[in-house]
From TrEMBL:
<dbReference type="InterPro" id="IPR002686">
    <property type="entry name" value="Transposase_17"/>
</dbReference>
<dbReference type="InterPro" id="IPR052715">
    <property type="entry name" value="RAYT_transposase"/>
</dbReference>
<feature type="domain" description="Transposase IS200-like">
    <location>
        <begin position="10"/>
        <end position="143"/>
    </location>
</feature>
<dbReference type="InterPro" id="IPR036515">
    <property type="entry name" value="Transposase_17_sf"/>
</dbReference>
<protein>
    <submittedName>
        <fullName>Transposase</fullName>
    </submittedName>
</protein>
Length: 176
């Protein structure tokens, strides 16, 4: 049996996860690259039953809380699809510096691709109870505030904080 980079325990339960761009490259500084992530989540919610409880997208990584009977496959599919689409976008925009770094970051043993976009794997942390869920949602939503990008969590455009504040976000989420 092959190893899995996406170890998800108890997929019927929510998990807190982080995905990071290789070398912490600032790729999510443009709406078009962020939209690729949002569109993928929306598709997964509508077509494969992903429950997305919260998220934040920063310039070089994202955090999210989700659950699905096939969460490991959802995460693998999310990373593969978004990596391909973002690389296509960067090529169309001739973002040569970023592409050069993504090419360099590709592991030497990988012969099936030219670029590496995401760091390998995902650290999935099982949400054990309601208190932990709110702790993780607060952590996610406070990220842009701690970095000094905004004063209030709901002011960060690329986050579910606005959904929880009753303001509506860029995509629908599954409320907790």
């Amino acid at each position: 049996m092959g190893r899995s980079r996406y170890i998800i325990t108890e997929p019927q339960q929510a998990h807190f996860m982080t995905c990071t761009v290789v070398e912490w490259l600032p790729v999510f500084t443009r709406p078009a690259t962020v939209q690729i992530l949002l569109d993928c989540w929306q598709y997964q919610r509508q077509q494969v039953g992903l429950k997305l409880y919260g998220y934040v997208i920063l310039e070089n990584h994202l955090h999210f809380i989700a659950q699905s009977a096939t969460l490991d496959k959802c995460v693998a599919s999310f990373k593969a699809y978004t990596a391909r689409r973002i690389i296509d976008h960067l090529q169309a925009k001739r973002a040569e510096h970023l592409l050069q770094r993504l090419r360099f970051a590709k592991c030497a043993h990988k012969h099936d691709r030219e670029f590496q976009f995401w760091q390998e794997g995902v650290h999935a942390e099982l949400i054990l109870n309601e208190a932990m869920m709110w702790e993780k949602l607060d952590y996610i939503h406070a990220n842009p505030v701690k970095r000094g990008y905004v004063n209030l969590p709901e002011h960060w455009r690329y986050s579910s904080a606005a959904n929880y504040a009753g303001l509506g976000g860029l995509i629908d989420i599954d409320g907790w």
